[in-house]
Amino acid sequence: MSNSEFLGSLNLVTLIIVFLVVAVAFAFFMRHRANRHPMEGRKERNVAKDLDEGRPGPDHSPRK
Fold first, then answer.
1. How far apart are CA 10 and CA 41, in angstroms?
2. For residues 17 and 23, what is the distance between their CA atoms, to the nearest angstrom?
3. In the 8-state DSSP scheme, what is residue 34?
4. pLDDT per residue over 16-54, tens digit each?
5. CA 54 – CA 64 distance, rounded (Å)
6. Is the CB of residue 49 less than 8 Å from the CB of residue 43?
């Protein structure tokens, strides 16, 4: 194997290994609930539609 072929193979293998390490690190990062989107798994409430139907609006008063 010539020197130029070796360097090309080394670059490709290094790129694949770095990609796999980043993918595993991202998977571990996303396992924690705090790192996910806050609305994931929740249904968004249409407040304007609820007010039109006579339901009470959201309570924005500060909690004690």
1. 43
2. 10
3. G
4. 999 999 999 999 888 887 777 776 666 777 778 878 888
5. 27
6. no
